[in-house]
Design brief:
Shape of chain B: globular
Structural class of chain B: mainly alpha
Oligomer: heterodimer
Helix content of chain A: over 70%
CATH architecture of the largest domain in chain B: Up-down Bundle
Mean pLDDT of chain B: 85
Number of strands of chain A: 0
CATH superfamily of the largest domain in chain B: NADH-ubiquinone/plastoquinone oxidoreductase chain 6, subunit NuoJ
Strand content of chain A: under 5%
Order of helices and strands of chain A: HHH
Largest interface: A-B, 80 and 97 residues
Number of domains of chain B: 2
Structural class of chain A: mainly alpha
Low-confidence stretches of chain B: none
CATH architecture of chain A: Orthogonal Bundle
Order of helices and strands of chain B: HHHHHHH
Radius of gyration of chain A: 18 Å
Strand content of chain B: under 5%
CATH topology of chain A: Helix Hairpins
Low-confidence stretches of chain A: none
Number of domains of chain A: 1
Largest sheet of chain B: none
Distance between the termini of chain A: 60 Å
Mean pLDDT of chain A: 88
Shape of chain A: elongated
Number of helices of chain B: 7
CATH class of the largest domain in chain B: Mainly Alpha
Chain lengths: 106, 176
């Protein structure tokens, strides 16, 4: 049982664990930046799955690598937009907690 | 069958186990720590481990991109945002516990367990033959032949997102 780096299941389980941590953090974190960090964890769990299937199962081993590169590009764009929204929200509310952004309530 | 610990294969396995530990430790720091700045450091550690896993999956180019984009760009941007907008600690500690806080850990564990179980039970069929080796050269060829349109589109998306984030972050500034 010393050769676990050559099995598909190892990578799939790591991807599942990262996804679980992401879902946990998304529900557990009160602040917007903490939720963004959890979303990055979820995306990286998906990327690990893509890379594992790409290496072990795909007939063309460039497809998964390119998909992962595009996931990275989209994640970078998403992080830039989300962080500037967070800064704009902080200017208006003096807080980045998701529970405090309740202007429409009552 | 089992390579000894000090053969090259055995050492590679030890490094692989260290990378798995780094990934999971980083993910737990990122989700469990109280201060946001420590979460970002945990995220960087986690991405370091994931980059190492990509290296084990025979794609050093994606591993390098992981380090450059995530550790080098996304984590630094998050650090800047936290320094610009982190609320004080007392405010974070007075948080009332909602239902989602208690449901979070069982739900995350359940999802991770279910996905792992699906992965183990699945019958994955290996392909008959691979049409290329997945090297950096093949990657560049298919990026500029089959996926050139997507390549252009994602650069437009990045450009628009940069302009949009600059415009968004600038909005409240003029009033003050």
């Amino acid at each position: 049982m010393l050769t676990i780096s050559a099995h598909l299941n190892t990578y799939l389980i790591i991807g599942a664990i990262l996804f679980g941590f992401g879902i946990f953090g998304l529900l557990h974190r009160p602040s917007l930046i903490g939720m963004l960090i959890s979303v990055e964890l979820i995306l990286s769990g998906a990327s690990v799955n893509f890379m594992a299937f790409n290496h072990f199962l795909a007939p063309d081993p460039t497809v998964g690598q390119i998909f992962t590169l595009f996931i990275m590009g989209i994640a970078a764009a998403e992080a830039a937009i989300a962080l500037s929204i967070v800064i704009a929200v902080y200017r208006n509310y003096q807080s980045i907690d998701a529970d405090d952004l309740t202007d429409l309530k009552g | 069958m089992n390579p000894s610990l000090f053969s090259p294969e055995g050492l590679a396995e030890v490094i692989f186990l260290i990378l798995i530990g780094t990934t999971i430790l980083g993910a737990s720091i990122a989700t469990l720590s109280k201060r946001l700045i420590r979460s970002v450091i945990g995220l960087a550690i986690c991405f370091l481990g994931v980059g190492g896993l990509y290296y084990f999956l025979n794609s050093p180019f994606v591993a390098m991109m992981q380090l450059l984009i995530y550790v080098g760009a996304v984590c630094i941007t998050m650090t800047f945002a936290i320094m610009l907008a982190e609320p004080d600690d007392e405010k974070a500690s007075r948080k009332y516990k909602s239902v989602s806080t208690w449901a979070a850990a069982p739900l995350g564990g359940l999802i991770a367990y279910g996905l792992s179980r699906l992965a183990i039970q699945g019958q994955w069929l290996a392909p008959a033959e691979k049409i290329n080796s997945g090297s950096v050269k093949d990657l560049g060829m298919s990026l500029l032949n089959e996926y050139s349109m997507v390549f252009e589109l994602i650069s437009i998306v990045l450009l628009v997102s940069i302009i949009g984030s600059l415009a968004l972050a600038r909005v409240g500034r003029r009033k003050q």
